[in-house]
Amino acid sequence: AAAEKGGFASFMDKEIHDQPQAVGDTLLGRTDVDGRLMLDDLRIEESVLRSIDKIIVIACGTAAYAGHVAKYAIEHWCRIPVEVELAHEFRYRDPIVTEKTLVVAITQSGETMDTLMAVRHAREQGAKVISIVNTNGSTIPRESDAVLYTHAGPEIAVASTKAFLSQITAAYLLGLYLAQLRGNKFPDEINTLMDELRDMPRKIQTVIERGEYVRATARSMKDASSVLFLGRHVGFPVAMEGALKLKELAYIHAEGFAAGELKHGPIALIDEGQPVFVVVPSPRGRDSLHSKVVSNIQEIRARGARTLVIAEDGDDAVRPYADEIFWVPPVPTLMQPLLATVPLQIFAMALAEAKGLDVDQPRNLAKSVTVE
Ligand code: G6P
Is-annotated flag, keyword Transmembrane helix (predicted)? Predict the structure, then answer.
């Protein structure tokens, strides 16, 4: 087993370090000689993909947060409405699904029972299903109209890490492919976005190399009883994923919030010393996202929060309000989840280790939930 872990203390640690390659491999071989994006395994007719009027992403757990991230990108690039729904909620609520609905099922294992049942239900209603799957030969791709494989390699640790980044990457590829097919973006715009994606493995590597500071912070917080996570836009699902990782691995109460919801309740939770992670978008974005998040940090800091801020290199605006800063390389906002998630994974892992817990096999959890 020690050899399988490649010298790392746990599979999770190894899989966190596998992430640059997982993302890189998921991007490999996706363009033809003219640089046009092609998704080989997409056996759905182009005319059908041109006519869809809605996308529903179905998934469970971490894969569902990948879907939430993808929604921001796909709607922005393709101007198709995207809903994201937990597979077990979708199945039991009589969802509106037609021949013009594209269902995207995201699953690492390809075996999650609720996701499989949701796929069957969608197809019975006449929808086309594309699955984004990591495990070759699993059930869900066999029951889908088409499959887009993430090439993360086997993920052994129960808590998902490299599968998550690869799922976001694959869903972005699908978004760009649809934008190309439906003429929402010019070829040079697609090329620019593909170049940004291809540059991500190198930047993910940089974030991993800065992991020791995150680990030290986590060790100093091993007695925390509650940690909150805030984000806006794509930072919101990243916050939810950060909270999920901490629950799964360290058995600490954790919640992710949309930063804009603070005033509608969560701010009542803030008292002296309450740790709060905040995912800060790029200050170079064209909208006011960044300044909104900076004011959210100010608000919680003024009420005593201990602020743990994930921000872009050189973002001086956050310095006065941050107790700790975890820097990530500059990238456009839509690409930031591929970086900002990494410190949150390392934090949860290191805190669980400091508590003496088994990070690969947390209590009560299974890698793949194949029962209802
Ligand atoms: C379990 C795992 C999670 C995973 C979820 C969905 O709960 O512990 O890490 O996100 O199942 O699994 P899937 O294989 O469908 O991605």
Answer: no
Integer Cα distance of 288 and 274 in angstroms: 27
Look at the block and give the residue holding tokens 């999650």: 112
Q: What is the dihedral of CA 187, 188, 192, 193, to 10 degrees?
A: -30
Q: With residue 20 as reference, give the H or E element that holds it.
A: helix 19-27
CA of 235 to the centre of ligand 1 (A): 21
Please tell me the residue having the least CA distance from ligand 1 atom 8: 367
Residues 6+ apart with CB under 8 A from 334: 72, 73, 76, 172, 234
Say how many Å lie between the CA of residue 367 and the centre of ligand 1. 6
Q: What is the pLDDT of residue 119?
A: 97
DSSP string, 241-292: HHHHHHHHHH--EEEEEEGGGGGGTGGGG--TT-EEEEEPPPTTSSSSHHHH
Q: What does the alpha-carbon distance between residue 336 and residue 229 come to, in Å, rounded to a whole number?
A: 16
Mean pLDDT within 147-152: 94
Distance from Cα 124 to the centre of ligand 1, integer Å: 24
Residue 367: active-site member: yes
**150 CB less than 6 Å from ligand 1?**
no
- For the Cβ of 63 lying below 6 angstroms from any atom of ligand 1, the answer is yes
Active site residue: 5, 222, 247, 367, which one? 367
pLDDT digits 0-9 by tens, 36-66: 777 766 778 889 999 999 999 999 999 999 9
Cα dist from 258 to 222, 235, 239, 263, 362, whole Å: 25, 8, 8, 10, 27
**Confidence bin at 346 (pLDDT 50/70/90):** very high
Query: In a mutational test of the pocket of ligand 1, which residue from 16, 160, 167 has the highest number of ligand atoms less than 8 Å from its CB?
Result: 160
Reported as a pLDDT band with limits 50, 70 and 90, residue 33 is: confident
- Closest by alpha carbon to 145, among 105, 177, 108? 105
> Is-contact 278 259, C-beta < 8 A?
yes
Q: Which residue has the tokens 């995150």?
A: 214
